[in-house]
Amino acid sequence: MAEVLVLVDHVDGAVRKPTLELLTIARRIGEPVAVHLGAGADTAASTLGEYGATRVLAADAPEFGGYLVVPKVDALEQAVEAVGPVAVLVPSSAEGKEIAARLAVRLGSGLITDAVDLEAGDDGPVATQSAFAAAFTVKSRVTNGVPVITVKPNSAAPEAASAAGAVEPLEVSFGDAAKGTKVVSRTPRESTGRPELTEAAIVVSGGRGVNGAENFHVVESLADSLGAAVGASRAAVDAGWYPHTNQVGQTGKTVSPQLYIAAGISGAIQHRAGMQTSKTIVAINKDAEAPIFDLVDYGVVGDLFQVLPQLTEEVESRKG
Amino acid sequence: MSLRIVVCVKYVPDATGDRHFAEDRTTDREAVDGLLSELDEYAVEQALQIKEANGGEAEITVLTMGGDDAKDALRKALSMGADKAVHVNDEALHGTDVLGTSLVLAKAVEHVGYDLVVCGMASTDGTMGVLPAILAERLGTPQVTLLSEVAVADGKVTGRRDGDAASEQLEASLPAVVSVTDQSGEARYPSFKGIMAAKKKPVEALELSDLGVDASAVGLEGSWTAVDGVTERPARTAGTIVKDEGEGGKQLAEYLAGQKFI
């Protein structure tokens, strides 16, 4: 059966959820073969096998952590040569997209980024993408070479399907460009203990209306009561109230949770681009004319400093 | 020595407008007014700051590929302070994908001559965010991308790349391709003097044949992806809006409970 390469996103062998989604999606097209670069392949292999990887091609080298992007492109290119897959699927992270793009150039392949769904088609895999701030849905496919496609988080529910997950070493030789950009130092982000923004079932975001970093605890308290991730609008991030890694919108994260709660966010196109495919949208805003209310399933016109704490208390008491 | 900086910019339909696809499923560039992609303003800004930090010893060329209107994007960048512009404009380019675009830009960058290429993090229309990486691949130079901070000194580019898992400090030798994020620093507004000066700055017009790019490698025909369909997402149905009269939080909780979220 045809094989599909899946690049594994992991932290020292702890496989991140989007990879499990990719393995699930890959099975619609062929047999998934995982490519694990860096430490922890043996740890990862059991998880990867559980979600359908028949083989796990593993390579570890200091270049993967020591230099930006290119060493992984070299490895993935050589995995493609070794396997001869019908498609290559890569998680749509910033790094994943750059790896996929350079790989496509080397393979002479068409490239599709940020797919939100993928299905088998008569002429190869058909990808679904969102365009123009999610105002449109686009169906597209690669017409030349082995399709290289990056897939966004939350594009499928991971489904287990036991396979061998046999670890096989992947021999990698690095090209001249591999050591072009040195990673001089790396400062890991501190964990907040909250779910990943792009993976969370519920997201609570704060915007300009939160009016200061010191007030964001109101948003965080609600998020914690719901087991949600915390997001922020560009206005809140630009003002320095919340980290950029939490920004929802065109230049931040695109989220598509079951429930999105926007507090003190007007709903500019920048923000809508990042959240309007959410299943249920709720907004709290003082301004009844705010464009966010055009998107909502339920909206409260009011002061978020009154509404959010009351909601948090209500959630906590219902849990109790 | 004077540093040769090329800034790649894109002329895009205004994101606040009602953007659509044309009949051939390419981006409709007629119906909505265009402008210099906001995210490319950050690239122009960082190029200007690098020039200033280099004691003014740099020449900034702003480069775009696009139709006649795309010169507006070049004018904007020139009015911000770039020194000269190159406009690749050829009918055969209509519908070119990112691989074709990067091929043309790589040839144009080589035509201009460069020590540093600066790009924005993504376009606001296609939003792929991969062109800088592909450009580096094609030029065979280091890729130093998605920087929130960037500096050039002693033949090296350094910068900070803020990822989800970690923040990385990067370093590469020139020549290199850099991309900067919207966290890299607010772009300046063109001054009146800058706007007037821009009118006199040279804009070189190039066609594909000037760059030795075959028309079959670009355009819709040369694209290695095909769009089978575009569908407008149905407008969200109007929801319930209540005014908080002191019970707003409780009403919202009631709604969320009804939807089984709590």
From TrEMBL, chain A:
Electron transfer flavoprotein alpha/beta-subunit N-terminal domain sequence ranges: 4-187
Q: Where does the chain bind FAD?
A: 208, 233-234, 247-251, 264-271, 285
Organism domain of life: Bacteria
- What is the free-text note on the cofactor? Binds 1 FAD per dimer.
Annotated transmembrane regions: none
Q: SMART domains in the record, alphabetically?
A: ETF
Required cofactor(s) = FAD
- Say if the entry is tagged with keyword Iron-sulfur: no
Q: What one GO molecular function would you report for this record?
A: electron transfer activity
GO annotation terms (biological process)? fatty acid beta-oxidation using acyl-CoA dehydrogenase
Keyword terms, alphabetized: Electron transport, FAD, Flavoprotein, Transport
Q: What role is this protein assigned? A: The electron transfer flavoprotein serves as a specific electron acceptor for other dehydrogenases. It transfers the electrons to the main respiratory chain via ETF-ubiquinone oxidoreductase (ETF dehydrogenase).
Subunit structure, as described in the record: Heterodimer of an alpha and a beta subunit.
Q: Family per UniProt?
A: Belongs to the ETF alpha-subunit/FixB family.
UniProt name for this protein: Electron transfer flavoprotein subunit alpha
UniProtKB/TrEMBL annotation, chain B:
Q: Where are the transmembrane segments?
A: none
Task: Please name the CDD domains in this protein's record.
Answer: ETF_beta
Q: Does the keyword Kinase apply?
A: no
Occurrences of domain Electron transfer flavoprotein alpha/beta-subunit N-terminal (ranges): 24-215
Q: Which UniProt keywords apply?
A: Electron transport, Transport
* Record-linked SMART domains: ETF
Record has Electron transport as a keyword = yes
State any GO CC term.
cytosol
Q: Which cofactor does it need?
A: FAD
Q: Which GO terms describe its molecular function?
A: electron transfer activity
Physiological role: The electron transfer flavoprotein serves as a specific electron acceptor for other dehydrogenases. It transfers the electrons to the main respiratory chain via ETF-ubiquinone oxidoreductase (ETF dehydrogenase).
The record's family statement is: Belongs to the ETF beta-subunit/FixA family.
Q: How does it assemble?
A: Heterodimer of an alpha and a beta subunit.
Query: What is the name of the protein in this document?
Result: Electron transfer flavoprotein subunit beta
What species is this protein from?
Wenjunlia tyrosinilytica
